[in-house]
């Protein structure tokens, strides 16, 4: 039983940490383009179905680049109003 637990605990911790890091946060640090990695934290364009967080940012206008985007959970925590243009965003 002990060897099983030694294997199970690290496996559970890896699963937990990878699910925490799956969220992308909009910073708008570079420009308003969704497809610019520098606008996101971590610095990569989010994959489809990624949970997204929009809080305080350098830019509140987001250009979707004429593409239909599919997102995971969307969270907004800002006193500013976000504007999305040039495409569609659908929560899946």
How would you explain this protein's 3D organization?
The chain has one domain. It has 1 helix and 6 strands, in the order αββββββ. The strands form 2 sheets. It has a 4-stranded mixed sheet with strand order 2-1-3-5, with no helix packed on it. A two-stranded parallel ribbon has the order 4-6. The longest helix has 19 residues. About 10% of the residues have low confidence.
Helical fraction equals: 10-25%
Major β-sheet profile? 4 strands, mixed
| DSSP helical segment count | 1
Which word captures the global form?
globular
Q: For the largest beta sheet, what order do the strands appear in spatially?
A: 2-1-3-5
Concise summary:
The protein has 92 residues and is α/β, with parallel strands linked by helices. It is built from one helix and six strands.
Write the layout of secondary structure elements.
Elements: H1 2-20, E1 24-26, E2 40-41, E3 52-54, E4 61-71, E5 74-76, E6 83-91
Parallel strand pairs: 1-3, 3-5, 4-6
Antiparallel strand pairs: 1-2
